[in-house]
Amino acid sequence: MKKRLTLTALLAAALTVSAHAQQPKNVFTVVRPTQWGAQNFNPFAPGDQHLLPTNSAIYESLFYVNTLNGKVTPVLGTKYTWSADNKTLTVSTRPGVKWHDGSAFSARDAAFTFNYLKQYPALDTSAIWKNGLAGARATNDTTLVLTFSKANTTIFPYIAGQMIVPEAIWSKISSPLTETNAKPVGTGPFTFDAYSQQALRVLKNPNYWMKGQPYIDAVVWVSTNSNDAALLKLLKGEADYGYVGQADPVNGYQKKGPNNQFWWPVTGDNYLYFNTTKAPFNDPAFRRAISQAVNTANVAEKAYAGAAKAAHSSGVIPGQQAQWLPAGTASLKYDMAAADAALTKAGYKKNAQGVRLGKDGKPLPTFKILVGAGWTDFITMAQVIGGDLKKIGLNTQIDQQAWSSYAGGLQTGTFDMGISWGWGGGPTPYYLFNQSFGPEYSAPVGKTAPSNLSRYTNPAVTAALTQFQSTSDAATQKKAMATIVKTVMTDMPWLPLTDRSEFSNYSTVRFTGFPTAQNPYNAGTADDTAGARLLYLNVKPK
């Protein structure tokens, strides 16, 4: 109890509030491993510019789409339907909702928000209007109609996740890019209370539309300057929740207290990208053979000490495999002998010294594996990969680069092989494959590719992506996804190495209701996300 009193004293000193401010009883404390900046609650500002309660506690979207499984949770929208040609999306909005200033929310606020993005294109960071939105209007107080110039049902998560603002306030703001919105008015479960460089607090919205929720009276965020400092506050009982990365969450956190728990859902993968513009990486047979030579289970074990597992070689995350992988789709099996034989069969023979030769009979060069400088997990992965490839006659060298050179090398296509995360993702595998292999996300070598790092395109994949995007029929989408998965697993423009997870750590000393593997209601997301809103709504005092 003493530790909680100490934290209470800290917060009382840090948060300057009026004499009439509420004194909340049940305070949920979140620790952050980073500092924050100026007081900014602009929901249109990038996430590193506005303060974190903005899009998780103060403003709300129409729906929340769970990135693990695609489940849609109604928020300010209650239901949605696509027209037969998939060019009109009709959304029913929730009646009886009030803005924090007491005025009524309506579909007209939602229509205004989308048109505001058109009026100020720099705010449209999801490129909703560029990707087909042609019109937004409210036909009455509870009906929003969005029309599109082309069928694009995969735009829905971006529509669903757009934070909605009150027309009465934002219609008067003519410089939204620089607006700090110091006194935010949203529809969310909490209202802004106080802020300092050490802590930030929001209070329960007494007029929230969801009756009986939230169960807590306040959320307080406390800033630290590192993962270690944040973890220490969790271990000392000075915080209830933290999005904190650790090398070994079992021994480093869970086993250090009976109430310490963590849930790290897999939301993506780490990949070994092949530069398909360079020989021999432009040969699918070469890429597939060396992929078979890498022991990804060992890569995961060495890099993450069991906290992450080997990825499925399709790149489809575990939560989406049951729905989207074609039946019987097995991950590529590690087999050094088979890889060695496949390379020889493909024309890459060995000389008397065991060195692998190109199809021209000359020894292949030493290939560089690009990683971020000092990134120990990626460096470890490269070491394991290099050791495996050495066994089949290929020499590698780890190329550590600072962020600008690392990202620049990947995006301009000046690397041989490179380790990075998936530059795309969403509630279905479409989003990963589209951003990873769509022609519009590629570029000639030397030019910046937004996310198609391998510079791989295939007519079959491109056609299937278009088919998936153009329909709302689940059976048609599954057929398209089967084509994509089969083609990518045959050509292997990348090698999925290990799973990547969210870092959801929590203590059950004072609260229950956290998301778990059995109840993954918010995909483990935290900080300033629509998923974090569900966390703050569902945790209950003991």
Automatic annotation (TrEMBL):
CDD domains xref list: PBP2_TmCBP_oligosaccharides_like
Organism encoding this protein: Deinococcus arboris
Name the UniProt record assigns to this protein: ABC transporter substrate-binding protein
Signal peptide: 1-21
Database matches in InterPro entries: Peptide/Ni-bd (IPR030678), SBP_5 (IPR039424), SBP_5_dom (IPR000914)
A biological process term (GO) from this entry: peptide transport
Molecular functions (GO terms): peptide transmembrane transporter activity
Keywords: Signal
Record-level GO cellular component terms: ATP-binding cassette (ABC) transporter complex; periplasmic space
